[in-house]
């Protein structure tokens, strides 16, 4: 395969490398931003990572950063670095559609806290990325605006719900991206595109301005091509926010320092637990072999590797698919055709109830309707205790499994997802097969723990990327970065360079 990274253009640099060149005055933010806009124009017609590209706004923001830098005002280490923003976070200067016809063309009146912090740090927002409608899906095939394609193989999915963000990274359309993770929507796309995705501790990054799917599970987080880049972005977006009642009022864990320490390649004193329940039947053999090789590499770095049992993790998937749809049923009730968004059938002859029904029928796609109906049923009189109540009890048991495990080890590891990227259309008619993509990622969401996916090689069956999932206790996000960075350096050395350099060359449109 021809390396996309050949030639060393601005679009193939890491965010840290771009930041260093900007700080040294070797390049301007306008030049870096224009290079990425050119790359988007060349390859995004094939990839469809973006729903909206704000070229004028991005260049204006880059110009402001360059002027501030010339005046000695630098707002953050990432000032001037471009980023792709998942279209589920509100932006006052771009539409926020959540991949749905229900919000087509809607421009919010306020910025999400994540958006605001990015702007204040001087990060240049290139545009909004495609996603499964209202973040409901594992393949980005549920977008009302068409699927995003995986740059490793354009006939395959880039993961979901944040496939647009992961594909933008893998296609070198942006060095950084933001995703949101409800049941794996940052980590699973990271795994299948050979990129890094981090779900911070629940409450570690503000949800204010994040259009809610499942409020007790949703968590914004960083997406990048390297562990250090993810850490740099994590520090920009994290921290307490009084606008979010679930935001944790504690200092942000030292994730950048941990990533730099991990890059030294010494994991002596770190205890790593391999989750027994996440292996065996149902796991693609090539994924299993890549994971086992990664565990061996962690051991060679000095980590003590032990097997850990988390017996209730096997019940996490069914519990999640009761809790998340229940909260979705409640949250999506706000899309009622009365206040904002789509309105269908309002010809003056119909009642408000009829207009609401017609709008929701036209505006929501099949997967969103499926989850609303599941959730409404689980919350209904006579079934609440049997379904939603029982699922919350399972959630408690999963949390206890994590607590017991972290008394024995510092981090837990597993494959991020049981298979490599599947073909577009392969699972659309089989919701259960689709849901299994999140088998390994869901427990961390139920418990609120921190978790990361880092590339761990290519499957020897199909040559597609495999992800290593690392899980840490709440507010111990720095452990992810130390272990992830140490593994990344060792893997790159063993495999002849970064995995992302092997992405097939995309032809310009």
UniProtKB/TrEMBL annotation:
One of its GO terms (molecular function) is ATP binding. It holds the Pfam family Amidase. Keywords: ATP-binding, Ligase, Nucleotide-binding, Protein biosynthesis. Its EC number is 6.3.5.7. GO terms for biological process: translation. The active site is at 86 (charge relay system), 161 (charge relay system), 185 (acyl-ester intermediate). InterPro entries: Amidase (IPR000120), Amidase_CS (IPR020556), Amidase_dom (IPR023631), AS_sf (IPR036928), GatA (IPR004412). Residues 31-480 form the Amidase domain. It is an enzyme of class 6 (ligase). It catalyses: L-glutamyl-tRNA(Gln) + L-glutamine + ATP + H2O = L-glutaminyl-tRNA(Gln) + L-glutamate + ADP + phosphate + H(+). GO terms for cellular component: glutamyl-tRNA(Gln) amidotransferase complex. Heterotrimer of A, B and C subunits. Belongs to the amidase family. GatA subfamily. HAMAP family: GatA. Allows the formation of correctly charged Gln-tRNA(Gln) through the transamidation of misacylated Glu-tRNA(Gln) in organisms which lack glutaminyl-tRNA synthetase. The reaction takes place in the presence of glutamine and ATP through an activated gamma-phospho-Glu-tRNA(Gln). This is Glutamyl-tRNA(Gln) amidotransferase subunit A.
């Amino acid at each position: 395969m021809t390396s996309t990274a050949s030639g060393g253009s601005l679009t193939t640099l890491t965010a840290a490398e771009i930041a260093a060149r900007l700080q040294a005055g070797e390049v301007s933010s306008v030049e870096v931003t224009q290079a990425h806009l050119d790359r988007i124009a060349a390859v995004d017609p094939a990839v469809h990572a973006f729903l909206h590209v704000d070229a004028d706004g991005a260049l204006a923001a880059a110009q402001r950063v360059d002027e501030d830098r010339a005046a000695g005002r630098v707002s953050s280490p990432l000032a001037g670095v471009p980023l792709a923003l998942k279209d589920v976070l509100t932006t006052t200067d771009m539409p926020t559609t959540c991949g749905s016809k229900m919000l087509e063309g809607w421009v919010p009146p306020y910025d999400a806290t994540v958006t605001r912090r990015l702007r204040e740090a001087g990060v240049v927002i290139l545009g909004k990325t495609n996603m499964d409608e209202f973040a409901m899906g594992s393949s980005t095939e549920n977008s009302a605006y068409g699927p995003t394609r995986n740059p490793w193989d354009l006939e395959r999915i880039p993961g979901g719900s944040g496939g647009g963000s992961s594909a933008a990274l893998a296609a070198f359309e942006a060095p950084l991206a933001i995703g949101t993770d409800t049941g794996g929507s940052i980590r699973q796309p990271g795994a299948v595109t050979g990129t890094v995705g981090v779900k911070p501790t629940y409450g570690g990054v503000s949800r204010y301005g994040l259009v809610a799917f499942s409020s007790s599970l949703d968590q914004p987080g960083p997406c990048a091509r390297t562990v250090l880049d993810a850490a740099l972005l994590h520090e920009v977006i994290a921290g307490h926010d009084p606008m979010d009642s679930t935001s944790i009022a504690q200092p942000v864990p030292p994730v950048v320092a941990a990533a730099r320490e991990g890059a030294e390649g010494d994991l002596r004193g770190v205890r790593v637990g391999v989750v027994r329940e996440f292996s065996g039947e149902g796991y693609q053999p090539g994924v299993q072999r890549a994971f086992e090789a990664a565990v061996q590499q962690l051991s060679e770095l000095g980590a003590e590797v032990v097997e850990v049992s988390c017996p209730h993790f096997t019940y996490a998937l069914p519990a999640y698919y009761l809790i998340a749809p229940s909260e979705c049923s409640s949250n999506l009730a706000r899309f009622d055709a009365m206040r904002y968004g789509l309105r269908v059938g309002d010809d003056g002859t119909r009642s408000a109830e009829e207009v609401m029904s017609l709008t929701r029928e036209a505006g929501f796609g099949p997967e969103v309707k499926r989850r609303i109906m599941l959730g409404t049923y689980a919350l209904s009189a006579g079934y609440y205790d049997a379904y939603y109540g029982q699922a919350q009890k399972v959630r408690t048991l999963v949390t206890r499994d994590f607590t017991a495990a972290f008394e024995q080890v510092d981090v837990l590891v597993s494959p991020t997802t049981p298979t490599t990227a599947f073909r577009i259309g392969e699972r659309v008619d089989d919701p259960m097969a689709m849901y299994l993509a999140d088998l390994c990622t869901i427990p961390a969401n139920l418990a609120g723990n921190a978790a990361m996916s880092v590339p761990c090689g290519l499957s020897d069956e199909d040559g597609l990327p495999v992800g290593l999932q690392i899980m840490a206790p709440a507010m111990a996000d720095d452990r992810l970065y130390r272990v992830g960075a140490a593994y990344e350096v060792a893997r790159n050395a063993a495999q002849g360079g970064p995995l992302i350099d092997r992405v097939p060359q995309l032809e310009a449109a």
